[in-house]
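pasting for the record
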Amino acid sequence: MRGAACDIDDDRQFVLRCGVTNRELDVTTLAPVPAAGYPLHSPILRLPSDCGPMELPFAEVFIAGLGAILSWFITSRAYKASLDQHRLSASSAAADWLRDLRTWAAEAIDVLAEASYTCRRGDPESTEEEQRTLHTCRYRLSALIDRGRLYLPNEQEDTVGNQKARAYRGLRHHALDALVAAECVIGRTIALGEYPDRKSALIGMRREFVSSVQAILDPHSFNREVARLIRLANEERAADPTLGGLLPDAKKPPAGAEALLAASSRRHRVRL
């Protein structure tokens, strides 16, 4: 090569010397060059004549490259494992939150049902026992409302009600409105609107509450996920599109309460 001297030392390293600098190293080809003590096929790196002194042991370069690839692979696997663990933790936290919300809502539904069945049509004067029951329902609803704030906080806390305690600033979550209205209905502190009596109002508030919470819990999606897990765990049930009725059957819609009662009564008559 013009302007460069190349030889191979005792450590079989390629030593490249040239006198001109400030040009990039151009490694293009490997070419056989005869050298003392080495066969003609000994590899060297062809370089421009103006590079500075440099040593490039081929084995070390290969090992360094292999190490970099291995390090990238290990780092990628570790990142993927960390991401999977984060997703698992987030999924577990969400499942715990939904379970707690479901437990809270179930207790509220029980109280609303007890209150509506304690009240009588037409709102006649309540007996002492009815008054005690309704009083118990009222303070339980009050507690359930505040417990619900732990899951469903107020909105617009920074713009509404700044003079109040922090948890009560802003606008109440819509899912709690039915409980607040029911508590006021029991205490006769709110107008019933178009409802004829407290019993009808409490039944209506229970339905509103169930509808609001059901939209949050989304049982349809939850049931589809449960069905997927059941099919993975039990191959024998994988062929059942509804899993015994867990999922809806488009070909067989629900018959309804009256139809079920009539069919059950016919089976009862046959047994007799």
